[in-house]
Amino acid sequence: MMDKNTNKMSEFMEKEYAKSLDFWNDWLGQEEENDENLNLDTAWYEIGSKVLAEAAAELATQKQVLDYGCGSGWASVIMVKRGCPHVTAVDVSENGVKAAIQYAETFHVKEQITFLPITTQWLKQQQPDSYDGFFCSNVLDVVPTPVCEAIIKSAANVCKKGAKVIIGLNPYFEQELIEKKGFEEREKNHLFYKDILRIVNHSDEEWTTILGTYFKVVELRHFHWDGEPDTVNRRIFVLEKE
Ligand SMILES: C[S@@+](CC[C@H](N)C(=O)[O-])C[C@H]1O[C@@H](n2cnc3c(N)ncnc32)[C@H](O)[C@@H]1O
Question: Which end of the chain has fewer CB atoms < 10 Å from its terminal CB, N or C?
Fold first, then answer.
């Protein structure tokens, strides 16, 4: 659900962002195959990267966590399974929220998660100091820069002092890799693949500055998905609200 947004977004990017939201909504609406051999005791943790799963699990120590742009809801389920008493899982994709509800039902943790389909304006309308944990994986680097900035600013507002924040990000794409992978840069740092905005490309240093404007940067970790070469440097930022 996209509202008439967002500070300083070009008309072009406004249209492209709406298209990308449709893309994610379609993606998340794809039927998952029922896996009868799913091990309900372990499958919630086996997401394809132990480092990323463990980063989500670190927020299980917090009492009220917001999983912002939850997608299929995998992180919310890990947090609850590892002991977090309550997670709020929100996404602008209605299919994402539906998938997240189903995923939480599969692992019997639905009662500890509040699921909300939201608009892009929701976060800035929330009460300050509402959460002591904030999780956001592969959202900030798939949205146009003004949207990203607005999310980070509002995230800082809804986080209590001392809140722990985990941000997951795609790897940085060097120019050579951009060309090799068939991405096209249509606005500065905004990479399109097959006519859809897919990545907003920033280096580790740039993300440190962007996130450091509102949070203390505690740690930057690199990881890759199982099966990816270990030269792939996906990023996890661990932040704290000061
Ligand atoms: C690449 S997916 C990541 C989903 C999930 N966090 C994960 O790690 O698998 C990007 C998600 O961001 C959501 N999204 C895009 N713009 C958003 C916004 N302004 N507020 C909340 N969610 C947004 C999309 O609907 C989509 O579910």
Answer: C
